[in-house]
Input
Amino acid sequence: MTVLTTRRDFIKQSIAGAGAMAAVPAWAESAPSAIDRVELGKTGIKVSRIAMGTGMHGYKRSSAQTRQGLESFKKLVRHGYESGLNFFDMADLYGSHTFVRHSMAGVPRENLVYMSKIWFRGGEGFEATQAAKPKVERFLQELNTDYLDICLIHCLGSANWPDELKELRDGMSELKEKGKVRAIGCSCHDFGALKVAADDPWVDVLLARINPKAFSMDVDKPEKVKDVADVLKKARANGKVVLGMKIFGEGRMTELADRVESMKFSWGNQLIDAMTIGFEKPEQITETIEQLTKVLRA
Output
């Protein structure tokens, strides 16, 4: 674990930078914490343990977050940043790049970690493509940045993806060599694709669906979740960064006890390096930071 500064100092600096007045919460006084900066494998990328997802129910360049409008989106993600989160999970499919750019204007780029995803399939208002360079160049313009920290192939659904998407993979590798992207990988929506990604040397970062109830996952029954967990352990043993998504079952875990159980499952079994949550309200961010911190200290 790598911590860039003390939690109390970090939160004070964030609050001061936002021009807000607030007390430092009691849970922020000692380690470990959800807002620690942890390094993702050997990538050199340091993130909060929680990423702010911007694609809840995302489709056709929109999401539950962007459909709230810019001002509500800004209030949401600035609350996350001022609470200690520095990690943004975006995608072309969500249409969230410009929302993040406007919301984080004035924040030094080095304080932020940007992850986005290339939608290659077609449909959803997109044409099918394997051309990585024009996609990433547009992402950079939309975000007003020189580089992405992480770029993923979005929503793999076949175990044959390494061969089927060779051109796209090669293009992303070239962008990584040129420094336009720091780390590359994929998000998986198929168990076969996940198993292949866990072993593929090309993958730096694997975004995987994981929760103990099998909600919105690559398996359909809770008793099969262990199979996914075993693959994620293997991926981490192979040096992959594993980011967990659907931790709260895409909003289906409405009870706090279920959400806490899911965090305990992923973190207690050392399945993930960080997790992305599609928050829709500032108070959800506050709750999750506090609850994950309790889980980490248990």
Q: What stands out?
A: The two ends are 17 Å apart (CA to CA).
